[in-house]
Amino acid sequence: MMRVLHLGKYFPPHPGGVEYFLADLLPALAAQGIEVAALIHHERAGWRGLWPKGEGDLPVYRAPTLGQWLYAPLSPAFPLWLQRVIEQFKPDLLHLHLPNTSAFWALALPAARRLPWVVHWHADVVASQLDRRLRLAYTAYRPLEQALLARTRQIIVTSPDYLDSSQPLAPWRARCTVIPLGLDPDRLADPDPESRRLAEGLWERVRPASIDHLQAWRVLAIGRLTYYKGHEVLIRAVAHQPEIGLLIVGAGPLARSLSHLVASLGLGGRVQLLGHQPDPLTQALLASCDLLALPSLERTEAFGLVQLEAMRFAKPVVVSDIPGSGVGWLIRQVGHGVAVAPGDSIALAQAIYSVTKDQKWLMQLGAKGKKALYKRFSIDAVAKKVNYVYAKILDQAVNK
């Protein structure tokens, strides 16, 4: 049986699109007959990690981490854990999920260098125009990134648009294959009655007081409150459309400044920042919203897995058409929403209005999304393609 060790940044309950994708991918690969494990960083900072406990669950090793610096986990013990996990699990292949600075330790460990590698390229480390610290840090990151790619047998990229626009991948295009992200629809359960009740109560808190109940549109955003997500653009869009009530699920460093923006625009009665919420309530909000908004600003938003979550509940989306990102590519493939220029709050408000004012069109968009999820973007379809990549690499290794 093929044995594959995945190296990732985090794993649920740590929130994030890549984290949930990895949690869906591991059991889907196991169902393909592959023995899988993952080494990630513990979501709780401290000196102690966590070794897998039970026999029934897929093994996830959580290396200790001391926090983060520039969005990267600080884990001095990660190379020791990688060495131990390789010795115990005895993988045939390493699957590295990038960006992840700890994955660079594979370059230094002989046990890791003896194995073939697959890189899952979730996003470039963008020399951000919004966070200048990342521009400086990338000068140190790029040589290690390119050294790792030079030793990698295959690179999985999540959309053709991202591949075409990625400068770091340009020298390695011959090794790249496009496999979009996928989702396990069964992970997102239909909401239970209590979660539905809580969700309805939250929507009531942002219902415009001067608008008829049937004309009040429920707009949901889900994502970390960080520099590239564009929540400030979405909040300003709400100011242009009095029919909108907005709930934002997610925590992060911009929570305070976004709260101040809501207050300064007088939107306290129509916009609420909910912070991080448990999965059942988040799913109930998805099931009860009119549409999902994803107003991200930069290619750091490489795909937008939350779009697939909205598709699970047949909800249309309004997104930023970020040049060189897979966010707009997914819209063009599926036709489940509207894409607008990033950073344009007026265009975003107009797009939300155009979708919500036509209930028939809104439902058609949602239905397209749900159909495409089950037909093209299920995690089982993704796992089959990833399995093919593994088999190709190992076959090349045997015949080399």
TrEMBL record:
Q: Does the keyword Signal apply?
A: no
Q: Which Pfam families match?
A: Glyco_trans_4_4 (PF13579), Glycos_transf_1 (PF00534)
An example Gene Ontology molecular-function term: glycosyltransferase activity
| InterPro entries tied to this protein | Glyco_trans_1 (IPR001296), Glyco_trans_4-like_N (IPR028098), Glycosyltransferase_grp1 (IPR050194)
Residues in Glycosyltransferase subfamily 4-like N-terminal domain copies: 16-182
Domain Glycosyl transferase family residue range list: 217-371
Alphabetical keyword list: Transferase
Q: What is this protein called?
A: Glycosyltransferase
